[in-house]
Specification:
The protein is α/β, with parallel strands linked by helices and 248 residues long. The protein has one domain: NAD(P)-binding Rossmann-like Domain (Rossmann fold, 3-Layer(aba) Sandwich). It has nine helices and six strands; from the N terminus they run H-E-H-E-H-E-H-E-H-E-H-H-E-H-H. The strands form two sheets. The protein has a four-stranded parallel sheet with strand order 3-4-5-6. Strands 1-2 form a two-stranded parallel sheet. Helix 1 crosses helix 7 and helix 8 packs across helix 9. The protein starts with 7 loop residues before the first helix and ends in a 5-residue tail after the last helix. 41% of the residues are buried. It binds NADP nicotinamide-adenine-dinucleotide phosphate (NAP).
Length: 248
């Protein structure tokens, strides 16, 4: 099951898994895009069912979780849907209403979905949970503070539940991509070094998930650089981030 399947990374993941003849549950808001993707995946050999609603509506997400548990939890759940906001061209700051929308989708609905799937997988003693974080989780970027915070929350949550679920044969992977070509990526301010095509990102994610990797982070040079931002004294990291043109 893939949320945010109508986007770049989600769509590429759906096509990648479809080639193996998987049964796919694809979620997105854009029903037309979902129908197109579904046709493509069926042509590639998959069984497909689609569900279209706004995940930031937490009551609907809660109901959907109940339906998924009642109907049989998928083997792999990829919580990929997400949005990004930024401090604006004039650095005037984020709007609270947008921050709330972002937190509802990126953090609350993702954790709600993963939590319900985790309990069902734990009982079944099988399954793989995948949470889509970002390299922005290593260090808060001044141009995207709320986004960075939301992705750091998912990284920490994934790391925590991985240990909790390991004795029950349930795997948990956190994915931390660098720049992957998509509408969201292109709308983000700042430089975008080492940008990958979504197909390449999807291949790396699928391979890592099959091995139950704790963390899938890429591409290597950007991953290495961002990791240093987390371990260096913060005053140095702030200077690097400013020097790299990510604000501050
Ligand atoms: N691209 C990058 O450089 C990059 C880097 C690091 C992490 N990521 C993460 O990767 C994930 C996918 O991003 P992407 O680059 O593929 O972006 P994208 O092409 O903009 O796709 C975003 C997806 O999220 C869905 N979505 C947005 N708001 C939603 C809502 N309220 N309810 C349900 N679905 C909603 C969109 O569905 P609709 O279009 O149908 O509304 C779309 O399928 C995100 O979590 C993002 O933070 C991306």
């Amino acid at each position: 099951m893939i949320t945010g399947a109508t986007g770049s990374i989600g769509g590429a993941l759906a096509r990648t898994y479809a080639k193996d003849g998987c049964s796919l549950v694809l979620q997105g808001r854009n029903a037309d895009q979902l129908a197109l993707l579904s046709k493509e995946c069926i042509a590639l050999g998959a069984d497909v069912s689609v569900v279209s609603f706004d995940l930031s509506d937490l009551e609907m997400t809660q109901r959907w979780c109940g339906e998924l548990v009642a109907g049989g939890v998928p083997d792999i759940v990829i919580a990929n849907a997400g949005i990004n906001i930024n401090t604006g061209a004039e650095q005037s700051g984020e709007q609270w209403s947008q921050m709330e929308d972002l937190l509802n989708l990126n953090v609350k609905s993702t954790m709600m979905l993963i939590h319900h799937m985790a309990l069902a997988m734990k009982q079944r003693k099988a399954g793989q949970l995948v949470l889509m974080s970002s390299l922005a989780a290593y260090y808060g970027l001044p141009v995207t503070p709320s986004y960075s915070a939301s992705k750091a929350a998912l990284k920490a949550y994934a790391e925590g539940i991985r240990g909790w679920l390991a004795p029950h044969n349930v795997g948990v992977t956190v994915v931390m991509p660098g720049y992957v070509s998509s509408d969201m990526c292109h709308a983000m301010p700042g430089p975008k070094p080492f940008m990958l095509a979504p197909e390449r990102a999807a291949k790396a994610i699928k391979q890592g998930v099959a091995k139950n990797r704790a963390r899938i982070s890429f591409p290597f040079p950007l991953n290495f650089g961002c990791w240093w931002l987390a371990v260096l004294p913060s005053a140095i990291s702030q200077r690097i981030v400013k020097w790299m043109n990510y604000g501050g």
